[in-house]
Design goal:
The complex is a heterodimer of chains A (about 70) and B (about 650). Chain A has about 70 residues and is of the alpha+beta class. Chain A has helices at about 25-30, 60-65, and strands at about 1-5, 10-20, 40-45, 50-55, 55-60, 70. Chain B has about 650 residues and is an alpha/beta fold. Chain B folds into three domains: about 1-165, Rossmann fold (3-Layer(aba) Sandwich); about 180-270, Orthogonal Bundle (Helix Hairpins), CATH 1.10.287; about 285-475 and about 495-660, no CATH class. Chain B has 29 helices and nine strands. In chain B, the strands form two sheets. Chain B has a six-stranded mixed beta sheet, with helices on both faces. In chain B, strands 6-8 form a two-stranded antiparallel sheet. In chain B, helix 19 packs antiparallel against helix 21 (about 445-470) and helix 24 packs antiparallel against helix 25 (about 575-580). The chains are: A alpha+beta (about 70), B alpha/beta (about 650). At the A-B interface, strand 1, helix 1, strand 3, strand 4 and strand 5 of A face helix 3, helix 10, helix 16 and strand 9 of B. Chain B: It is a multi-pass membrane protein. Chain B: Keywords: Cell inner membrane, Cell membrane, GTP-binding, Ion transport, Iron, Iron transport, Magnesium, Membrane, Metal-binding, Nucleotide-binding, Transmembrane, Transmembrane helix, Transport. Chain B: Pfam families: FeoB_C, FeoB_Cyto, FeoB_N, Gate.
Chain lengths: ~70, ~650
């Protein structure tokens, strides 16, 4: 597993874990970013990323993106 | 004869097993390891008088070990005490690979990096400076192509060399925030008297792992009856924050090293996401945003100009009509100076405000503002603000009151307080009339630029204030930024108009009640005591202005300007309204200001700066009190604004005189 913040633009990944207890996972969960969901990285600016789930886009700052552990889909 | 035990570590699919096969001359099946049954493969290579024992670990992205295969790799690395660790790094994806490097380095074992798939990297037009990588990490880097055995001999030589080195390793240090370093040292210190419990871990590295949230280690130490300093007193949220700080520090390190050592061309781009990739580009994002804002303010100033002329013309007609009618001089003064002079001078700026609202709402409707928030997040974060604070800030350009209420979306209390304190530095629409008036009179063609400068100054002051409060008052980091980005839409003219009307109406309502009331009071103060010349030094307004004027003498403000400031506490629009009243009505205002010998462009600039920063207005003050929930922070917020306004206006006056001339 690798933090979302290290992926590249265009990568497809599956969320495998969300680090930290409670708070962040809850916030992300509200947006549908949960374990098992597939994301497409459509932008990466430094450690911040924009991901797409279907037609929804979410911006994650460096802090948040680094706590989301994903598995690249090859 | 000497035995050397090495571990092959690395991300999955970087060619570890291929290298293992080349090293040991075996034909292990290469592939991934699905499921939970993972094992470490062992092999052996004979080189002269050395026996190289090679263990091929399951692929792992990090040592946090969330999955069983990662745990196997972690346990081998942390407990088997090898002579060296060889990390295989995929040359086509260095940054992600280096993240593991930053973790391996800290274990403190001798290390070699095998840069694999360099041939693929070449194909993908990725150029890697291996020397630079090596110099940066202070870890030997060997280029290999595991598939055909290229570079293997050199790799073996390097492995033997690092294991024969007697000096302790000295890799690149990861720069953790100061507070984290302090706690690591504290915990490390404590653990050094319990080394026996740590197995193969050094106290320092064990401390880092505890700070990172290694529950396994923490539980083991607790089972031994240890009370770990700092860690045991931390609440979960604080622990998360620290874990995040450590992760971020590692990413920064891997990113920093990558940036310096790797040059690559752009990857494939999906057409649907192209706009996002341009607008939120790491380099172009901020310039694009600033250009948008600059154009918005230029348009605000120039597009509203014809309306301004029209409204001024209408008020001129009213004044003339009144002059033709017989009426009591008292009532005439009330209507001419108070109503037309005061309210009129505010109303002429309504078009500017409407134009600004319509531009803001167009930007919002297109979905761009949310992208702008993303673009600004990293920057906001670096100055101690939350990325989400950006939206309240933008709202603040319209009106500070809803902006302060919008901070409710921030979850952390510190983030909220800092944002609320800094929002009033966002130049709200009510301040625009003051700029339009003074910049127009004193700066002519450069007015648009002066106004843009004021907006930027407000932002700069907000940033510096945020940094000061984050640095000295709230030491913790801003909480993570997560935001949904709305889809891009073509802005609908109707929606923008409705939006504009809704916002503009608020302004008109205020202009109608608060500002009207305010200018009436100013009119009364300028008229009484009975018999004095209207708006003269002897009037109540004049006396009031003169009482406070000495306070503002260092800033070069005359008593009329001071009266404007006093009434500006009610609402910033009243500043112009009261000046309109004191300077002989809306019609005369501009020419009287231009002709006043006590004023100059640089004083005008200092005045605009002071108006920008000193105090939002009574309404905003009420909301600040309500949202902060106590008087202490409310007073700090207001006091800070006034203090900053005075200092910055003073600097503006003195530095400005050097350029503009007194």
């Amino acid at each position: 597993m690798v933090p979302l913040s290290l992926m590249k633009t265009g990568d497809k990944v599956v969320v495998r874990a969300i680090q930290g207890t409670g708070h962040l996972a809850k916030t992300l969960g509200q947006l549908g970013i949960i374990i098992g969901i597939e994301l497409t990285i459509i932008q990466k600016a430094k450690e911040s990323v924009i991901v797409r789930i279907g037609e929804s886009r979410y911006a994650l700052g460096a802090g948040a993106a680094s706590m989301v552990l994903v598995e690249p889909q090859i | 004869m000497k035995d050397i035990r090495i571990l092959l570590a690395g991300n999955p699919n970087v060619g570890k097993t291929t290298l293992f096969n080349s090293l040991c001359g075996v034909h292990q099946h290469t592939g991934n390891y699905p499921g939970v049954t993972v094992e470490i493969k062992e092999g052996k290579r004979q080189i002269n008088d050395h026996s190289l024992f090679v263990s091929d670990l399951p692929g792992t992205y990090s040592l946090s070990a969330f999955t069983p295969d990662e745990q196997v790799a972690r346990d081998a690395l942390l407990t088997s005490n090898p002579d060296a660790v060889v990390q295989i790094v995929d040359a086509t994806n260095i940054e992600r690979n280096l993240f593991l490097t930053t973790q391996l380095m800290e274990i403190g074992l001798p290390m070699v990096i095998a840069l694999n798939m360099s041939d693929l990297a070449d194909e993908q037009k990725i150029t890697i400076d291996a020397e630079c990588l090596e110099k940066n990490l202070k870890i030997p880097v060997v280029r290999i192509v595991a598939r055909n055995g290229e570079g293997i001999e050199k790799l073996v030589d390097t492995i033997i060399r690092v294991t024969e080195k007697k000096t302790p390793v000295d890799y690149k240090k990861i720069e953790y925030p100061h507070s984290v370093t302090t706690h690591i040292a504290e915990i490390g210190n404590y653990l050094s008297s319990h080394v026996s419990l740590l197995g193969k871990l050094s106290p320092h590295y064990a401390a880092i792992r505890l700070m990172e949230g290694d529950e396994h280690l923490e539980k083991m130490l607790h089972d031994q009856g240890l009370v770990i300093p700092f860690i045991d007193k931390c609440d979960p949220a604080e622990r998360d924050g620290i874990a995040e700080d450590i992760l971020l520090a590692r990413y920064r390190t891997s990113e920093e090293v990558t940036t310096c050592a790797v040059k690559c061309s752009m990857g494939a781009v999906m057409p649907a996401d192209l706009i996002d990739q341009v607008l939120t580009h790491r380099l172009f994002g901020i310039p694009i945003f600033l250009s948008c804002m600059w154009f918005a303010f230029q348009i605000t100033f120039s597009a509203s100009n014809p309306f301004l002329v029209g409204i001024e013309y209408l008020f001129g007609i009213f004044t003339e009509m009144m002059n033709g009618v017989e009426m009591d001089p008292f009532i005439r003064s009330f209507l001419a100076d108070g109503v037309i002079g005061g309210v009129g001078s505010v109303l002429v700026f309504v078009p500017s405000i409407f134009v600004m609202f319509i531009l803001l709402s167009i930007l919002e409707d297109t979905g761009y503002l949310a992208r702008a928030a993303f673009v600004m997040d990293r920057f906001m974060h670096s100055v101690g603000l939350h990325g989400k604070s950006f939206i309240p800030f933008l709202i603040g350009f319209g009106c500070n009151v809803p902006a302060i209420m919008a901070t409710r979306t921030l979850q952390s209390k510190a983030d909220r307080i800092i944002t609320i304190i800094t929002i009033p530095f966002m130049s709200c629409a009510a301040r625009l009339p003051v700029y339009v008036l003074f910049a127009g009179v004193f700066f002519g063609a450069a007015a648009g630029n002066v106004i843009f400068f004021l907006y930027v100054l407000g932002i700069a002051v907000a940033i510096i204030s945020a940094m000061i409060f984050r640095r000295f008052v709230f030491r913790d980091e801003p909480s993570p930024f997560i935001m949904e980005l709305p889809p891009y839409r073509k802005p609908s003219g109707l929606a923008a108009a409705v939006h504009m009307w809704y916002k503009g109406k608020e302004y008109l309502k205020r202009a109608g009640i608060v500002i009207f009331g305010g200018v009436l009071v100013v009119w009364a103060l300028a008229t009484f005591p009975v018999g004095v010349e209207y708006g003269s030094v002897d009037s109540l307004a004049g006396i009031l202005g003169q009482v406070f004027q000495p306070l503002f003498a260092p800033l070069g403000f005359n008593w009329q300007l001071v009266v404007g400031l006093i009434f500006g506490f009610v609402a910033k629009e009243v500043v112009v309204g009261s000046l309109g009243t004191l300077y002989g009505g809306e019609e005369m205002l501009e020419s009287s200001l231009a002709a006043d010998p006590t004023l100059s462009p640089v004083i005008a600039l200092a005045y605009m700066v002071f108006v920008l920063l000193y105090f939002p207005c009574v309404a905003a003050f009420g909301v600040i009190r309500q949202e902060l929930g106590n008087w202490k922070w409310t007073c700090i917020a207001v006091g800070w604004g006034i203090l900053v306004a005075y200092i910055v206006a003073f600097i503006t006056l003195h530095v400005g005189s050097l350029f503009i001339g007194a």
